[in-house]
Amino acid sequence: MIRTQIQLTEEQAARLKLVAGERGISMAALIREAVEAAVTGSEQERRWQRARESVGAFSSGRRDIAGDHDRELTEIYSER
User: Fold this and answer.
1) Domain containing residue 48
2) Contact partners, residue 79, CB within 8 Å, separation at least 6
3) Per residue in 17-71, pLDDT tens?
4) E runs forming strands in 1-80
5) C-alpha to C-alpha distances, 4 to 1, 7, 32, nearest whole angstrom
6) 40 lies in a domain?
7) Structural domain contains residue 30
8) CA dihedral sign, ordered 51, 63, 60, 58
9) Number of domains in the chain
10) What is the Cα–Cα distance from 54 to 47, expressed in whole angstroms?
């Protein structure tokens, strides 16, 4: 592991110590969990953002899909 230093306010340090104690883990372990959650959350948000940006980017060539989506889905699923 890589050793690093961070600066916390007194209130942050007190809350961190309290939560770590309640969970029975070290403050360092709790910080590592928080970092992992932040990094993972950022990756997931980037994936969702790319998905949102792709909406409307592709064309099926059909103009009536929105109005006939129930019929289209019924046809698609009945073929399975």
Assistant:
1) 9-54
2) none
3) 999 999 999 999 999 999 998 888 778 888 888 888 888 777 777 777 777 778 8
4) none
5) 10, 10, 11
6) yes
7) yes
8) negative
9) 1
10) 11
pLDDT band with cut points at 50, 70 and 90 for residue 80: low
Determine, yes or no, domain membership for 35: yes
CB of 26 closer than 8 Å to CB of 20: yes
Is residue 26 in some structural domain? yes
DSSP letter at 46? Answer: H
The Cα 38–Cα 40 span in angstroms is 6
Distances (CA, A) of 54 to 10, 44, 45: 45, 16, 14
Would you say 16 and 27 are in contact if contact means Cβ atoms under 8 Å apart? yes
